[in-house]
Amino acid sequence: MSVQKKEIKRITTHILREMKENGEKISMLTAYDFSMARILDDAGIDILLVGDSASNVMAGHETTLPITLNDMIYHASAVVRAVKRALVVVDLPFGTYQGDSKSALKAAIRIMKESGAHAVKLEGGKEVKDSVERILSAGVPVMGHLGLTPQSIYKFGTYTVRAKEDEEAQRLREDAILLESLGCFAIVLEKIPATLGKQVAQSVGIPVIGIGAGGGVDGQVLVSHDMLGINKEFRPRFLRVYLDLYDDIKTAVEHYIRDVKSNDFPSEKEQY
Ligand code: KIV
To answer: If you average pLDDT over residues 63-85, what whole number do you get?
Structure first.
């Protein structure tokens, strides 16, 4: 008797488009290492983003600006090794694509070749048009990112909600249509009014994934460390926290320390 193998259908950019067309919401989370990526993939997440938020949550920097291309490739390789089903998207780090489309292509190719990831993401609209075009011309799928774009934090000056005024909202609508026309396979919208998120999702054929962009978009993304409660300080309104991992880990470690100090660990059974 032959054993039936459970078939795992890999998520592709084509499948994501079908999900939008069928009204099936897309789930996306960040991942930066093998062990976490394996759990998230096993749970059935559709997209894993190796976000440059690794700069904050993995390396402890205040912004996403310091992380390097080599760092991103290191994180992405670990995630790719863990994943059987999810589409793996990797952020192009700050300084690799702004104002230089050749350098953008080189960075995207290094990510694809050296990590085995499936797509790249970059921030911005009209101003990064040349980079998006050049990367796409090499056959590398590109995800856009509009609204609050953390690599421009020093230009914005704050992490507050973007595109509340008509002029910025109109620019964002135009940028979304431009990114679709260039050939991006999806767009992330970060921290914008829910009504605008819904309008943008309805105005383009490609999936729009929101983070603080309301429920009218085609899917949601969160930073996994935030939704798992590892990072206690960050509690924006858009975040739903599903676990209190900071406290759970701390309690477990306190327990371990007590057991070591009291000579309770290791027991007879835990030694050779
Ligand atoms: O780097 C990141 O985690 C991101 C998400 C916030 C979308 O870009």
So the answer is: 98
